[in-house]
Amino acid sequence: MSPKFLILLSVLLSGVAQVCLKQGLNRVRVRGRGQWRRICASLVSEGFVWLWGLCFVVATSLWLIGLQSVDLSYAYPLVSLGYVLVSVLAMIFFKEKVHRERWLAILVICAGVVLIAGS
What we know:
By secondary structure, this protein is mainly alpha-helical. It has helices at 3-27, 36-45, 47-67, 72-78, 81-94, 100-117.
């Protein structure tokens, strides 16, 4: 696989990891003072939190492998694609509202990524 593809796959997995973490935390509903043990037990037993960890480890590994052959000045701005991905996934999975101002910011990010990818 090409190093640029590995970097993009890393960014994709990082975005998916954030959605998994949010889903896992949404499912942990322990409230009140002195509940640290119950919170930790709930987090450890939550599958989406484990999926987040797995995605994050794989994404980091791909990033490290891809970064060996790609300039950091090229690779790092591509991380901003994660903002786009997470916003879209949040709309789909969590029914979050993304207002016009955010879409405009996402468009600016995409334009920047296109300029960098073309260089």
